[in-house]
Structures are given as C-alpha cells and as structure tokens.
Design a protein that fits this description.
Largest sheet: 6 strands, antiparallel
Shape: extended
Catalytic activity: ATP + protein L-histidine = ADP + protein N-phospho-L-histidine
Number of strands: 44
Structural class: alpha+beta
Oligomer: single chain
Radius of gyration: 48 Å
InterPro entries: CHASE3, HATPase_C_sf, HATPase_dom, His_kinase_dom, HisK_dim/P_dom, HisK_dim/P_sf, PAC, PAS
Organism: Gelidibacter algens
EC number: 2.7.13.3
Protein name: histidine kinase
Distance between the termini: 131 Å
Length: 1392
C-alpha cells in the first residue's frame, strides 16, 4: 500500500512538472509575441521618420535651387550639395526596414527612380544657369519639367507616409490588444500553477508525516542549514546592495563589518586593518564626543543621526550624513548597531559654491552701484540688498520691508506700464527690462530707475520667486533732459521761422577752390522751400548734380573771408528763385556756412507755378510706398516711381527703355505663373472699360497686389493704363526618472533609511520595507500590486519600466535616478543601485534594490544653476563692463560690454588669451588712454592696478580714444579686492561704466548755447527770449538795429514802444493770454523802424515746455513781411474776381440741372402715356376676341404686355434715378428701425410666400432723407428676396456697428473727423463671383438674364447713388451659391 502511494506521488510529480514546463513555455511565447508587436510599432515609427527626413532633404534642395536661381548667391547651394548622397543613405535604411512589406518596397523603388530623375533635372538646371549667370533664368520648359517631377516625388512620399500611418495604426492596435491580454493570460496560468503546487504540497506533507525516519530528520537538518546559509547570503546581499557606507558594530562600538561600497567610499584597501577598531577613532578627536553620544543613544534602542567631517583612509576630505540604528528584538539588550553613512561632500561643495556666488554677486553689484532684490511670490516676502535699500531711500539695515514699501514709491503714471511689463514676463516665461520713476522714501526726491528681472518656477509651472537688479539712471536722464532743453532752445528759432535755414560745410580742393558742400542741419521749412528731403549728411552734388557753379563760389567766399552775403539768385537746377543771406559759423578756418533763404519763385515768375506743382506731384509719387506705373495706349511707359522699380527689382536699362514688352519679359522671369500674368495684361488692354485687382506670386516667395484701371477722358477716349503694385507678403503670410523611495529590510532594513525592495526571478516584487511605506504613504499591499509604478513621475515612468524589464531579461544589475510621488504630493528624487541576486547553486534569484533620497542634491544642483543664471543675467544686464581677475591679473570672467571695451568682439576671444600682458598690449594698441585731465594714463594708475597695489577699493575716470576710428569713450572704473579666509588677496572685481553720454551732454549743452548766440546775432530777424512769466530778457542785434533802442530800453514793458499805437492794446492782451495758457502766439503787427517808418511783421511766440508740460520760457521772432503782404493783397483781389466768375457759372449750372430734371419728368410722363394705351388695348384684344385669337396671337399679346411692363418699370426707375441726381437736402433725424418696419410691411406677402426669415439688430437714428432711406432698404431687401435659391428658404440678416477711427481711415473717401455707422445686409441666396462686386452697382448691369430673374438693372445703382448723396459709400462681397452681403456706410450727421 505504501509502495502504491509512493508510485502515485511520483506520477503526480512527473505530471505536475510537465504541466509547469508547458506553462513556462506558453508564458515565454506570449511575452515574446508582445515584445515583437512593440518592435513592429517602433520599426514603423522609424520608417516614418526616415521618409520625413527624405522629404526634408528633397524640399531643402528644391528651395536651395530656387534661392540660387533668383539671387545667384552660392550660399543657397549648401542644401543642394550632397543631397543625392544623403537621400541614398536614407534609401539604404528604408530598404532594410521594409524588406517584409511588398507594397512599400514597390513604392520605394518607384520613389528612388523619381528622385534620381529629379536630381538629374536639378543638376541640369543649375549647370545651365552657372554656365551663363548673366542670362535669364532657365527655360520655361526646363522649369516646368522640374516642377512636375517635384510634384510626382511629393505625391509618392505622401502615399508612402499615408501607407505607414495605416500600418502604424494597425500595429498599435495589435500591441495594445496583446498588452491587455498577455498579463491576464499569464495571471491565469500563474493561478493554475499555484493551485496545482498547493494540492501537491498537501499530498506530499501527508505522506511525509506518515513516513518520518531518522534519515529524513538528517535531511531536514541539512535543509535547515541550507536555508540559514541562504538567509545569511540574503542579508549580506542586502548590505552589499546599499549605495551608502554601511557598517555593523558590536554593542561596544567596534567595527565588525563594512559593505563593499563603504570600503570604496572610505578608500580602504584592507578591511582587516579596521576590523574590531573603535568606530569613533576614525572620526578624529574633534568628533569623538559626538560619535560616542550617538552610540550611547543607539544602545538604549533609539536611532541617532549627525553630520560631521571625516577624511578617507587616503586623506580625501569628505562630509557624511550618518544614521545610527540599533539591531535586536524588542525588550532585549542591543547586540549590534548599524551605521549608515551617506557621502554629502558634493552637497557641501554646492552650498559653498552658492555662498561664493552670492558673495561675488554682492561685490559686483555694490561696485557697479547696482541693487539686487528677490520677491517670494507665494509668501509675499521681499529681500533687498543694502545698495537697493539706499537707492530707494531706506536704511540699509532694515529687515521689515514689504511689497507695499516697493509698490507705493513708484510714481502713479509709471505703475501701470511697469507692472504690465512684469506680468507679461511672467506669462511668457521671459525676463523684463523696464524704466520708471520713484519718490525716494527718505527725501521724496524723484529718481529714475531701470529694473531687469525674471520669474523662477517650480515643477508645477507656478511662479515661485521674482528676482532681479535695479540701477539708478537719474543722472543719465537728467543729462538727456538738459541736452534736450538746450536743443529745444536752439531749435525754437527754427520752429518760429517762416524762412528756410540750413548749415552747410564747404568742401575745397587742393587749390582751395570750392567744389561741393555737405548739409549739416536744416529746419522744417527747408524742405518746403527747396523740395529736398532727407538731405542731412548728403552732399549738394549728390542731391543736385547739375547745380550752377556760382552757388559754390558764393558760399565758398563766405567761408573763406567770413564776410556775410545777401543776394537774390535763381537756380535752373532747382527751378526756383531765392532771396538768400549767407554767413560763416565759427572763427576763421571754419568751413561751416549758415544759409537763410526764402523761396521767391512765385513773386519772380508766376508761370513756374505749374512746374512747382508737378514737382510736388512727383515727390508725392516717390513718397508713396506703392509702386506706381502709367502706360500709354500703345504700351509705352509714361511715368513710374521708385517704389515701382523696387517692387519689380527692375534694371535701369529696362525702365529707361519704356518698352512694355521688354518689361513684361523681365517680369515673367520673376513670376510663378508668367503666362497668366501676360494673358491678364493683354486682356485688360483689349477691354479698357474693365478694372483689375489681382495678386502676383513671385519665385522668391513675395506676393504683390496689383491694381489696374484705364485712364479715360471726358469724351470716352482711352488714353492710358494706371497700375499700382503693393507688397503684401507680410499680410498673407500670421514625460519627466522613476519615483524615489526609502525602506528597511526586516530587522536590518527597518533600521536604515535606505529604501529596500525585493523581486523574485519572475520579476514579481515580494517585499518593500517600511521606508517605502513612509515615503509614499501607500499600504504595502498597494505597492506589491505594482502600485509603485503608478507613483513614478510621468516623464520617468516609461524609462524606468523599460530598464526594469530589460534588466530581468538579461539577468543583470542596473542603476537609476528617478522621481517618485511622496505622501505630501510632491516628487522626491531617488538613486537606486540594483544588483542581480543569485542562489547558492548559481541560478538567478531576482533583485534586491537599495534606493536613497537625493532630492537635496538635486535641489542643490538646481540652486547652483539658478544662482549662476542670476549672476550671469545680472552681469549681462548691468550697464557696465565687469571683470573678475585672479591674483596674477588673469581675467577669470567678463561680460560682453567688458570684452568690447578692451578691443575684443566676444568674451570667448578674451578668455582664450592665456597671456594677461597680451590683453593689456591689445587694449593699448587699440586705444589711446587718457586721464580726466587729458594726459596719457600709465597702466599702474588704472583702478584695477591700484587695487592690486594697495589692497583697497579704487575709483578712476579715464578716456579711451580708438586709434583707428577716433571714437571717444569716457569710463568710470571701480575696483574692489576679494580676500580669502586667511586675509590673502585672491581676486579683484572691477567694473567700468560708460559715462560718455554725461560728458558729451555737457559739451553739447555748451556748444548749443554758442550756436544759439551765433545764429541769433546773424539772422535778419528780430529774435527775443522771455522767462516763464513773460518778462523779456534777451534781444538779438537785429532787434536793436531795427528799433534803434538799447537792450535796457526794451526790457520789462519797453518792447511795446515800437508797436503801432492802434495795435498795442490788442497785442499786449494776446501776449498776456498766451503767457497764462501756454498757447503759442502768431500775429501780424506794424513795428516802427529806427527811421520812424512802420513796416508789417509776422511775429511768432513759442512756449518752451519741459517733459511734464510746464513752461520753462519763451522764444519769439519777428519777420518783415511788408513786400509779401502787398503781394498777398494783390493776389486776394484776383481771387475775389475769380470767385465771382465761379459763382456765376454755378448759378448757370444749377439752372441747367433744373431744366434737365423737368425734362426727365416730362419725358417719362410722355413715354408712359403711349405705354398705358398699348397695355389697355392689348388687354381689350385678349378679353373681347379671346375665342377668335389663335395660340400664336395670344403668345404675341403676352409678350407685348410683358415688354410693356418692363418698359414701364424701366421708365419709373429712370425717373427715380434722375430725382436722386437732384440730391434733395431735406435731411432730418431718421430712425432706421422705423424704416425697416415699413419695408417689411411692404414685403409681407412675398416673405410669407418664400417662407423667408428676416433678422435684424437694433439700428441707429441718423441724419438722412427719409424717402431715400426707404428706397435703399427696399432695394436691398427686395434683391435678397428676389435672388434666393430654389428649395432654400431665404435668411436675411441685417446688422450694424459704429466704425472706429482706425476703421474710418481704411476708406479714403470718408471724412476722418466724422462718425459713421456700417449697416450690413447679408443673405443666403445665389450670391455672385467676387470679380463682379463693382460691376453690379453700374446702371443697367445685370449678371443674369431676365428670364431667370426679372428686373431693370437699376436697383443697386440707385442704392449706390443714395449712399453717395448722404456722403457715404457702399460695397458688396459674395460667393456663388453661398450668398452675398451688402455693406452700407453712412455718417451719423450730415455736414452743414
């Protein structure tokens, strides 16, 4: 019976083994199939990437070819050279990847052939162009063939991509299905295996209990020993897997064991020299008490922790974070102690680096007088440097400053702008740079501040801190204002003059003969008087090549002799006559001449007026940014502007030929579709009544909008075509390293902060220690059910899982850094070292993972990164050069401004220079260095050299003059020493601030004052200045000479003496009003000359205002206009005569219009009378002879009646149209809502018949002629109902909106000073093609025959005329078979 039971057990064991083998094989096969489906998805994605890469190569080559053909610039050939070889490499990859796909192989083969042909054509095209680059572009046939071949290539690539997309979707579905089913299948197999093993185990135990023997007891003991050995091995593996230095101590503190990582970290080659050694002895005497105290605490059963410094066995300095834990059962004495020491040396270095960076930043910003600040957004806490506090008027030692202390000092007018900039930087994750003013806290002084800052964000993308720098730029702003005020004073005369004024510098040849001159400065009137624009910095020869020689002789003599010259001279080159006064500026040797002139052309020669107007028109055309071209009826160019040449980039010889055919040939070479261009031009020339608006596409990618219309005389003769071209190109063109963890394994694992996890040979996690639970806040059960994977950071999850599965497949260890979600909802960084574990017999047993929290290290790294970014941002944004020297004088760091100041283009060039002396030599070769007194500055007197010599801070002002260009630069240099812990000077931080503006401003102010004095004393005008309250304080020499009075006699109220007695009261009253209001004053008055005669003068008084609008003073001029006034009076007499003639002509025209209106009314009445009889007798024939009439006769009568109706409607419409021409003026307030209501009543039956829907907004009330508004609404709504689509109920929407000023400016015919409403009538009818949008408003024009839609073709013409009568406009937009919208723009009020 026992033998039978034994045999049964054997058979069951064999059967179970076989089943397990089958299960294992099946599981392996399922996993292999799943992996294969993943590989197929990845292969398909790689194929797609290669096809896209191939497309990119071909597209780049195509673009390069176009760029080269258009510009002849070889830089475009970079994408062409080697394109075919790169394509072949991609083909090789694709051939190996799609070898199992017959369809794609065939597509690839065809694509390869097409590409070979395309590259052949591409090379052929380029060779053709290279061989004759001066010729035109390659022939149309070659370009067309290239384009067609490229289209075939693009289509084939698109087909292959589409095929791969379908294949990828199918493979992803297969992969997702296997990813779902495979785990379920494996779980079922595992459950079956567990059940089978459990049943077999119970049967085996039953047999074992009945057959216990001595032999079996021996076997049990052997098995127990084996398990103990395995347990020891398991524990040792746990210890060895820890990445920290892990030691086991006895209860007296002697070292019994140290893991391999610990030996490596402590640099111990032979552990025997440390075994049984007292642990505290390796820490040194300074840490002995600390170590012993932690051991004493552990002996009592508590965990101790400390941070201390301890070098390695080889003397390498290291810092350690140490955890000391007891090992033993609860309630029993501690037998062993585990010490886990984590190397935190790098963290300590990071902290020290941050401190050093902070120190350097403080030193640099203090030296450059730059304040730094940081604002914690979430805590609303503000930190300011001492410099920043002083800058804002706060005590440097204050620590209680808040956000409000910052916000309240900014001037109200600057707050909105400032915080808009800051908010914008926050939204776009960028830095900001803003200038604003503050009221300083301690003295309420207004200071100008420039602030540069940047937001820093946490992992969730939330703003944490706002950090930046501030610089006081008050001195710079004050210099700018002083310079501006001085210039305003100087330019005040310019603004007050009615004469042209310029300053020129004469150019002489070697014989001192004047040959040319350069315009230095001109006043606003200069352009009006001469017609010359943008002349500053240009020579007269350049601007007026054929200017008469006598002008240079006159000005040259003034410059050489210093004798002023007043003369009248005409210039054929300018077509003008001038009354000119020229005098030298400056002392002898100066070549500058001031020229004061008046254009007297009209006075000299009235017949030149026409030429002058023509010049203005040409100037207008040249100022127009659109290209303008006028071509006569025979195709010859009449005129063009510079913008036309710029748009077409047309050579001068083609333009000068004025040959339309030659210009068209050149245009074809630039256009994408040249034939369409030619056909359109020829068609328009054959149909001069048509207009054209189209877009031209250029080969270089530009889009040009072309407008064309014929020029037709009053008699209907076609004279020319006018074209405009506008460049509208710009318009056409607008998952994060696996989760951190810490646990303890059983007794030893629970005593450490290291996170321990155990996985068996089948990749199932069987254990997590308490540290994992504490970190994640998840129950052990959740973690064992793959809950740990759910805690991984999304950006790390795939990488961690892939590495985990790959390591199991290869049975090898691995190491990872990843992020994991902790119980606080934040991500912690973990470093995991995971060695492979094996059984004593060498078979794979799985893994023991040991992970440590490295969040502090990562945060330290991030802090260093942020600190370096802040330091770099500060250095790059500080408006000063910054240098950091070591103790030998070598530059360790400098910003871009610093590199530029010493003659280098980039910082890299400076830092690459090893020899500090070479840098100094280069700087002195580039610049002449002077001190503030203008004397050469020795090298040892520079601020940096002084600081190295004395060990103290220094400050020096110097001037650098570029030896090559002569450019001058003033610098304020400051240097500060940096000492180490032993008070040894190790570095010097130096800053150099550009103070050129302040220096130049001071000189400019001085020069401006001189210019003002010289100018005022030489111009033939009376010039004076006054204080803000109106007291005269300066009169020029011409004023004294003209009046014969002294300066003292004219002061106070003495300036009133020369005024004609009838003008004094009115003039003084106006002057007091101007002083009170700050308004400029312009008046004509009679002033007494020294000989007693009175002459007419035009006097200007202009207020000089500060940036805040306050008056700082007054400048006035008086110009003699006696002759001009006499000429004007004579001209007014002629104008009055001409006005009388025009009034008479207008009366005659009005009378004629009245007669025409009467004629139209009588004619329409006379025409309608015969029509009524025709209709009456036709109806009587039908009624009385109905039975006798044949079918044909009835048809004829129907046609007579229909034609008569049309004629009657036409006559009525013509009568309405003629009435509109009278343009009645009975304008009144018209409520358009009432108008619409009346019209809807008229159409009520038709609306019901067509089942139409009419929707409307609330419409405004405007000034209009009510009857015409009724007519307008009637026509537009009637059109929408008439031109509706069959089987589609009409939907008519009427909306309105008030046009903004910007909108009004879009329509040149509208008055910019009026307010307008736009009313839009939109329907869903038959619509029309947009090209007919203007034609439909022409009288009698129809887009459909009358059999389809009845009507006379006058309705929309009436609508347009009504809007024109009301000073508005109308236009339409449509899309065939979709609908149309009619836009009516009317003013709210009619002009008086």
């Amino acid at each position: 019976m026992k033998e039978l039971s034994k045999n049964t057990s054997t058979l069951l064991f064999i059967l179970l083994t076989g089943v397990l083998v089958v299960i294992a094989f099946t599981s392996y096969n399922k996993i292999r199939q799943f992996n294969k489906s993943v590989d197929l998805v990845m292969d398909t994605q790689i194929v797609k990437a290669n096809i896209i890469e191939l497309r990119s190569i071909v597209t780049d080559a195509e673009s390069g070819q176009r760029g080269f053909l258009i510009t002849n610039d070889s830089v475009f050939l970079q994408s062409v050279v080697g394109a075919e070889q790169r394509s072949n490499l991609v083909f090789s990859k694709l051939e190996s990847l799609i070898s199992d796909n017959v369809g794609q192989k065939e597509n690839l083969k065809k694509l390869k052939t097409l590409l070979a042909e395309r590259y052949l054509l591409l090379n052929k095209t380029l060779e053709s162009f290279k061989n004759s680059p001066s010729a035109n572009l390659p022939t149309d046939s070659l370009l067309l063939e290239s384009k067609n071949k490229m289209d075939e290539v693009s289509n084939k690539i698109a087909l292959m991509l589409q095929t791969e997309d379908v294949l990828l979707e199918q493979r992803i579905q297969v992969k997702d299905r296997k990813a779902t089913l495979t785990p379920i299948f494996l779980l079922l197999l595992s459950l079956f295996s567990i059940v089978a093993l459990t049943l077999f185990f119970f049967r085996l135990r039953k047999e074992t209990n009945s057959r216990v023997s001595a032999t079996k007891l021996v076997e049990v003991e052997a098995e127990a020993r084996k398990q103990i050995e395995a347990s020891e091995l398991f524990n040792r593996t746990v210890l060895e897997s820890s990445p920290d230095c892990l030691k086991v101590l006895d209860n007296e503190g002697r070292i019994q064991y140290m893991n391999f990582n610990g030996l490596c970290q402590m640099e111990i080659d032979d552990f025997s020299t440390f075994k049984n050694k007292n642990w505290w002895t390796i820490w040194g005497s300074e840490n002995e008490a600390l170590v012993k105290a932690s051991l004493d605490k552990a002996i009592t059963g508590k965990i101790a922790q400390f941070i201390a410094y301890c070098p390695t066995a080889k003397g390498t300095p290291k810092w350690w974070d140490v955890l000391v834990s007891p090992v033993g059962k609860a309630g029993e004495p501690v037998q062993q102690i585990i010490s886990v020491s984590r190397d935190i040396t790098e963290q300590k270095k990071s902290e020290e680096a941050i401190e050093k960076i902070a120190a350097h930043l403080t030193l640099a910003t203090d030296s450059a007088n730059v304040g730094t600040w940081s604002f914690n957004v979430q805590k609303q806490e503000l930190e300011w440097s001492a410099v920043h506090k002083k800058m804002w008027g706060y005590d440097a030692h204050r620590t209680d400053l808040t956000y409000e202390d910052w916000h309240k000092l900014i001037l109200p007018e600057d707050k909105e702008k400032t915080f808009e900039k800051i908010d914008e930087a926050k939204n776009i994750h960028n830095s900001y740079d803003v200038e604003y003013c503050i009221n300083r806290a301690n003295d309420d002084a207004v200071r100008c501040i420039r602030s540069v800052g940047k937001y820093y964000y946490n992992e969730k993308g939330e703003a944490e801190t706002l950090t930046g720098i501030s610089v006081d730029i008050t001195q710079q702003k004050e210099s700018e204002l002083k310079l501006k005020a001085s210039e305003e004073k100087y330019r005040g005369i310019f603004e007050a003059m009615d004469q042209g004024f310029s300053i020129i510098e004469m150019i002489f040849d070697s014989d001192n003969k004047p040959v040319d001159c350069v315009y230095i400065e001109t006043n606003p009137v200069f352009e009006k008087q001469t017609g010359l624009k943008n002349v500053t910095g240009k020579t007269v020869r350049e601007l007026i090549p054929n200017l008469e020689e006598e002008w240079f002789q006159i000005y040259g003599k003034v410059a050489l002799t210093g004798e002023p010259n007043r003369f009248i001279e005409g210039s054929e080159a300018l077509g003008r006559w001038f009354e000119t006064y020229a005098f030298r500026l400056g002392d002898q040797g100066s070549k500058k001449v001031a020229v004061l002139f008046t254009d007297i052309t009209e006075r000299k020669q009235n017949e030149e007026t026409l030429q002058y107007r023509k010049a203005l028109l040409e100037a207008h055309n040249e100022a127009n940014r659109d290209g303008l071209l006028l071509v006569d009826a025979k195709g010859k160019i009449i005129s063009y502007n510079q913008s036309f040449i710029d748009v077409w980039r047309m050579p001068k010889e083609i333009v000068d030929a004025k040959d339309d055919e030659l210009a068209l040939a050149f245009a074809m070479a630039q256009l994408v579709n040249p034939q369409q261009f030619i056909d359109k031009v020829k068609w328009l020339y054959e149909h001069p009544s048509e207009t054209s608006i189209d877009e031209l596409e250029y080969l270089d990618g530009r889009i040009i909008e072309r407008h064309g219309y014929s020029v037709v005389g009053e008699d209907g003769t076609y004279y020319a075509w006018s074209w405009t071209f506008r460049d509208i190109t710009e318009q056409k063109a607008a998952a994060e390293a696996i989760k951190e963890s810490e646990t303890r394994f059983r007794t030893m694992a629970e005593a450490t902060e290291v996170l321990i996890g155990v996985a068996d040979e089948a990749s199932n996690v069987t254990y997590f220690n308490k540290a994992w639970v504490d970190l994640t806040g998840r129950p052990m059960e959740d973690l064992l059910k793959l809950g740990w994977a759910d805690l991984l950071h999304p950006e790390d999850k795939d990488r961690v899982v892939d590495t985990y599965l790959s390591a199991f497949a290869n049975q090898e260890g691995y190491e990872l850094e990843f992020r994991i979600l902790n119980k606080n909802g934040e991500y912690s960084w973990l470093l995991a070292k995971i060695p492979a574990r094996f059984h004593p017999d060498g078979t794979f047993a799985g893994y023991i993972s040991a992970s440590i929290d490295i969040t502090d290290r990562k945060e330290a790294e991030e802090k260093i990164k942020d600190a370096r970014e802040l330091l770099e941002t500060t250095f790059q944004n500080v408006p000063s050069a910054i240098y950091n020297f070591d103790k030998t004088g070598k530059i360790l760091y400098l910003n871009e401004i610093g590199a530029n100041q010493i003659g280098y283009a980039t910082t890299e060039e400076v830092l690459a220079e090893k020899d500090a002396l070479q840098l100094r030599k280069r700087a002195y070769e580039t610049f002449t260095v002077l001190n503030e007194q203008g004397q050469p500055m020795p090298v040892d007197q520079h601020s940096t050299a002084l600081t190295f010599k004395t060990g103290k801070s220094s400050e020096v002002v110097s001037q650098l003059i570029n030896k090559k260009t002569g450019a001058s630069l003033w610098l304020l240099s400051r240097a500060s020493p940096i000492y180490d812990a032993s008070d040894q000077l190790v570095k010097v931080l130096s800053t150099s601030t550009d103070i050129t503006l302040q220096k130049v401003a001071a000189e400019a102010i001085k020069e401006s004052e001189v210019k003002f004095r010289v100018l005022s004393e030489n111009v033939p005008h009376m010039i004076w200045t006054a204080t803000a309250d109106g007291k005269r304080n300066f009169f020029n020499k011409h004023t004294l000479d003209y009046t014969g009075l002294t300066h003292a006699e004219l002061e106070d109220d003495g300036w009133q003496q020369p005024i004609f007695h009838e003008d004094i009261e009115n003039d003084v009253s106006k002057w007091h009003h101007a002083v009170a209001t700050g308004e400029d004053l312009r008046a004509e008055k009679r002033l007494r000359r020294h000989d007693g005669s009175f002459r007419w003068h035009l006097c200007h008084s202009i207020a000089q205002k500060g940036s805040n609008g306050s008056i700082k003073g007054w400048i006035g001029t008086c110009t003699d206009i006696t002759e001009h006034k006499a000429f004007t009076e004579e001209l007014e007499i002629k104008v009055n005569q001409r006005t009388t003639e025009l009034k008479k002509t207008n009366e005659e025209l009005k009378h004629t219009n009245t007669q025409l209106g009467q004629f139209a009314h009588i004619t329409s009445h006379d025409l309608q009378e015969p029509l009524r009889k025709i209709i009456t007798f036709s109806k009587r024939l039908q009624d009385e002879y109905q039975e006798e009439l044949t079918t044909g006769a009835k048809t004829y009568l129907d046609k007579i009646e229909a034609a008569s109706d049309r004629m009657r409607n036409l006559i009525q419409d013509l009568l309405n149209y003629s009435r509109l021409l009278e343009h009645e003026k009975s304008v009144e307030n018209t409520n358009l809502n009432e108008t619409l209501k009346n019209i809807l009543t008229d159409f009520e039956l038709l609306v019901d018949e067509k089942k139409a829907e009419i929707k409307s907004d609330a419409l405004p009330t405007i000034e209009a002629i009510p009857l015409q508004m009724n007519q307008l609404f009637y026509n537009l709504i009637g059109n929408a109902l008439k031109f509706s689509r069959e089987e589609v109920p009409p939907v008519i929407t009427i909306t309105s909106r008030t046009l903004s000023e910007k909108d009004v400016k879009k329509y040149p015919t509208l008055n910019p000073s009026s307010s307008y409403v736009e009313i839009i009538f939109k329907d869903n009818g038959i619509g029309f093609e947009q090209q007919y949008s203007e034609k439909i408003f022409t009288i009698f024009q129809r887009l459909h025959n009358r059999d389809t839609f009845v009507g006379t073709g006058i309705g929309l013409a009436l609508t347009k005329k009504i809007t024109e009568n009301h000073n508005g406009l109308t236009f339409a937009a449509g899309q065939e078979h979709i609908g149309a919208s009619f836009h009516v723009i009317l003013p709210f009020t009619q002009p008086q």
